[in-house]
Design goal:
Distance between the termini: 47 Å
Order of helices and strands: HHHHHHHHHHHHHHH
CATH architecture: Orthogonal Bundle
CATH topology: Ribonucleotide Reductase, subunit A
Oligomer: single chain
CATH superfamily: Ribonucleotide Reductase, subunit A
Number of strands: 0
Number of helices: 15
Radius of gyration: 22 Å
Structural class: mainly alpha
Length: 369
């Protein structure tokens, strides 16, 4: 069955065209580049992995509870809608399936956007060391899109179209002719928010398969956000006040779009719920308030680090209640992301060893019998 048959809402166009502008830049200077970027490039080469072999696709999930999230993670727990359906296992299962499908669909579409943006960076960035690294990221993002697509198609069975807020930010990012905008829109805003969202689900899900997927994708994404920080930090020091103001305005508008990206309005409409009731529950949900704040834990310190920290940006973060995220140590978060992926691998090896021992004992018993 094709993906188009799994979309819960008909997709009007099979492709979405954005009129891209800007120059394709060659660089004839093949001397050594920046040590930090070349180190990331080497790590990008060393850490390539195959989704077919690294992920245990034979693991089953319950379609009625694909992520095994705790009750406190239910964003509409205080709504009249939830009160009406909470004692109906079929309705609750349907809701959980659609919530997982919607969330991972946005991850999928974002990864395709990241693949296209990183390819644009290869094309347009002036520096060869950045071109080298972005080429490894393009492969990473292709692998992530492949992985999320398979999870949605084979394990959840439903796919949602791209969220309008994510689509708007991708449009703004890719249609801008300035070479740094794919960095700023994708590496800092979209990737930063996605990385935090992946982390919340990775740490809360009780289901092995999505935990594996999220841990492995985050291992790559930690490098991608570091790439954006390194590449933009030096360049933004040289901006004029007017140029910096333009980019800070882009950050403010993009962050408001990203804040609204995970509210899930499409789910309430599709399932025939009272949209106003669900939206109010989501808006006032303690879990969602904490979740939305955590979503900016990767963005705010990165924006500060690259130098887009004028009064307009700080006021926007104050309004969103995330200004205190500026003190988060990004390096520690990224190191933890890499460590957790290696831990998942170690646990899988240990489990495989135990299975081999059990199989050996069984075979010995069979032979003795």
């Amino acid at each position: 069955m094709s993906t188009s048959e799994k979309y819960v809402i008909p997709v009007e166009l099979r492709t979405w065209d954005i009129a891209a502008t800007g120059a394709a830049r060659f660089n004839w200077d093949y001397d050594d580049g920046r040590d930090q970027l070349l180190s990331l490039y080497q790590k990008g080469k060393d850490k390539q992995w195959d989704a077919i072999h690294r992920i245990d696709w034979e693991l089953d999930i319950d379609p009625d509870d694909p992520l095994g999230m705790p009750p406190l993670a239910n964003p509409i727990a205080t709504s009249r809608t939830w009160e009406r359906i909470q004692d109906d296992p079929k309705a609750v299962g349907e809701l959980r399936q659609h919530q997982a499908a919607w969330q991972f669909s946005q991850f999928l579409h974002g990864e395709q956007g990241a693949m296209i943006c990183s390819a644009r960076i290869v094309e347009s960035v002036p520096d060869l060391d950045a071109k080298f690294y972005a080429s490894t990221q393009t492969m990473d993002e292709a692998r992530h899109a492949e992985t999320y697509a398979r999870f949605l198609q084979e394990k959840i069975g439903l796919v949602y179209p791209i969220n309008p807020d994510l689509k708007a930010l991708l449009d703004d990012t890719l249609s801008d002719s300035r070479w740094d905008m794919p960095y700023l829109g994708m590496q800092v805003l979209i990737e930063g928010l996605a990385l935090a969202a992946f982390g919340v689900l990775r740490d809360m899900t009780t289901v092995a398969l999505p935990k594996q997927i999220l841990a492995y994708v985050m291992q790559d994404e930690a490098r991608h956000v570091a790439f954006g920080r390194i590449a933009l930090r030096d360049y933004y020091r040289e901006l004029t006040s007017a140029e910096r103001d333009e980019r800070e305005q882009f950050v403010v508008e993009g962050c408001y779009l990203m804040r609204d990206r995970f509210r899930g309005q499409e789910i309430w409409d599709l399932l025939g719920y009272d949209r106003a009731d669900c939206e109010e529950a989501v808006r006032t949900s303690p879990f969602m308030q904490a979740y939305q704040a955590l979503l900016f834990s990767r963005i705010v310190p990165c924006v500060r680090d690259i130098g887009l920290w004028g009064p307009k940006v700080q006021q926007a973060y104050e309004d969103m209640g995330v200004l205190d995220m500026a003190g988060v140590n990004l390096d520690d978060l990224m190191a933890a992301d890499e460590s957790l992926a290696e831990q998942v691998d170690a646990e899988k090896r240990e489990l495989a060893g135990r299975r081999a021992e059990v199989d050996k004992v069984i075979s010995i018993g069979d032979a003795a019998g």
